[in-house]
Automatic annotation (TrEMBL):
GO terms for biological process: fungal-type cell wall organization. This is Cell wall mannoprotein PIR1-like C-terminal domain-containing protein. Keywords: Cell wall, Secreted, Signal. It is found in: Secreted, Cell wall.
Length: 228
């Protein structure tokens, strides 16, 4: 009897270390227009709900998603996975993070969707929360402290076709540059993505009009005979 009890206690740490492998999704349907599958890979960024600005068209599609310093993910059947094969999930402390497998006690390991307006949703809600932690923010699925504010997580698809290696359409020419402030979600080794703000020099583009084709001169009018 004593041996059996010892054996059961020895198995408890092993079970905890194994993590969560089942797909656990929140109750409720996804918001209208949101789908549990997305084509290809994408990066994510955040936009505060207060005074929310439109996503800049220059960042709507990436020429490539190298994953260097940014989180690159895929969505299939409501499950997020990053380029390292880790699952995106909501941990027991309500934090959005990536692990393989998700840590024991994970609240949600599935139920994500991408909406037609470009935002990421979890269950029936498309609102997440960023909470300040020093010089960066952590992401949560709910309010958890006074330093938290609501945000949208936006999807930035990795573009292809029609763009060259610099992320510019081959039919467009650069006419100037401007500084754009953008928010990036960067990966950490421990699987906890952090939100940071950075500035980028972006090219302003112009699509030349097609050359006007020469037109033939109008035909001369035939003289009209006068009646006598």
């Amino acid at each position: 009897m004593r041996f059996q009890l010892f054996a059961l206690l020895a198995m408890v740490p092993l079970a905890i270390a194994q993590g969560v492998t089942d797909k656990v999704a929140p109750e409720g349907d996804a918001p209208a227009g949101c789908q549990p599958n997305a084509d290809g890979r994408f990066e994510i960024t955040v936009v505060p709900l207060a005074g929310k600005a439109k996503r800049d068209s220059l960042f709507a599609n990436r020429a490539t998603c190298s994953g260097g310093g940014t989180v690159v993910v895929q969505l299939a059947d409501g499950v997020l996975t990053d380029d390292q094969g880790r699952t995106g999930y909501i941990a027991s402390n309500f934090q959005f993070q990536f692990d393989d497998p998700p840590q024991s006690g994970a609240l949600y390991t599935g139920g994500f969707s991408v909406c037609t307006n470009g935002s990421l949703a979890l269950g029936s809600s498309a609102t997440f929360w960023q909470c300040a932690s020093g010089t960066f923010y952590n992401l949560y699925d709910r309010w958890s402290a006074a330093q938290c504010s609501p945000v949208d997580i936006l999807v930035l698809p990795c573009g292809s076709g029609g763009e060259n290696g610099n992320g510019q359409d081959a039919t467009q020419t650069v006419v100037g540059t401007r500084i754009i402030t953008t928010t990036l979600v960067v990966p950490l080794g421990d699987g906890q993505p952090q939100v940071i703000t950075t500035t980028t020099l972006a090219n302003s583009k112009h699509t030349p009009r097609p050359a006007r084709q020469p037109t033939a001169p109008p035909s001369p009018k035939s003289p009209t005979a006068k009646c006598k």
